[in-house]
Every structure is written in C-alpha cells, then in structure tokens.
Amino acid sequence: MLVYIARLHQAPPLRRPYMSDRTLADPIALFILGHAGTGKSWLTHRFVTHQHAAGRPWCVLDKDVVSEVWTGPLLSAHGQDPNDRDSPFFKSVARDLGYESTLRVGRDQIEHGTSVVFPGPWSRELASGRLFSATALGLPGYTRMRHVWLDLPLDIRKDRIIKRGDPRDQWKLAHWGEYAAALKRPEAVADGRIKVLDASLPPEEQLAFLDDLTRA
After folding, report:
1. Rounded-to-integer distance, Cα 25 and Cα 191, Å
2. How far apart are CA 71 and CA 167, in angstroms?
3. pTM here?
C-alpha cells in the first residue's frame, strides 16, 4: 500500500509541447538586453501582451521582480544599503543569486511549454558565453534561445532613469561619469551575434522586430 501511494505522488515526466502531432513547438527563451534606461521592461510587457492577444503562451521573468522580495533584506542583514545594486558587495554576494533564481523559475515554465522573456543586462552570462547555451543556464536543452540588444543614446537613458525615480538607481546618478564611462557594448553585440534594436522606434516597429526574431 505504501509503495502504491508513493507512486501516486510521483510526478510523470514532462513532455515537450506539441502544437499538433507533426509540429514540435519548442518554447523560446528571449533575452531582452541593454543598459539601464533602454526600455527593457517596458518592451517586454508590451511584447508579452501582444503574444497573449495572438493566443501564444508567454510569460515575463524579470530578475529584479523575482529577487526583489529578498535582496533588500539580505543586504540590510549584512549592514548594507538595501537599495544598492552597484557596489562590489552586492555584485559578489547577491547579484548571481538573483539571476540564478530567475533561471530556475524559468526552467519550470519552459518545461510546461511556456516561452519566457528574460529582460535584464545579463552581463556576466553574456561575457562568459553561457547566455547562448540553454543547458549552461540550467534550461531544457530543447529551449530555443533568442537575444536582442536595445540601443538608445546615453542622454535619453539618463533622462529616463531620473524620471522613473527608482531608489536602486541612486548610485548610478550620483556617480554618473564613472558609471557611463564603464558602459560598453558586449562583444557578442559588436560582432553581430546579437541583433540590435533601436529602442527609439515606434512601439509597433519594435514589436514587429521581436515577432520576426522569435519566429526565425
């Protein structure tokens, strides 16, 4: 009896989703990349709303949202500013936890057939090359990987950062010269492996760009 009950509680293996008996619809992991103020979150939500209207299963996993409930308390517990997102302490202790938590939640969504948009810088994962490998990120091997880099002039980005009034941007604005001097285009963007999207384009054109990218 105990063996029987245990088997009842064993989850069946997840299958890859099918649109029909003949057409395999592997979920997509879409990484919307770019520096602060380029409109990553805004475009992500517009894109997912657009996909839902077309009946396509997509969700948003923003690492800031996934990790925000614990990042501030973690920093406070170590005597740090809970709004800090730029110090060496944050980058060495909290940064990777937020990204890895986001990927772990994303894996579950993809295994259940839902495509995921991951907005964020993803700078370390991009520099190491992990961002191009589903398995290196802990995602199912059949995940279709897509990437786009949002581009916008620096003065417009600064203006957007000021207007959004996020306490997590305090360090950037207080040390703008230092922050701006450190901004670089990732090698994968410079060499063309990742397509660039002009974030000043009308919303309809940006959505059309992402439609083409995800259908390729």
Report:
1. 30
2. 14
3. 0.86
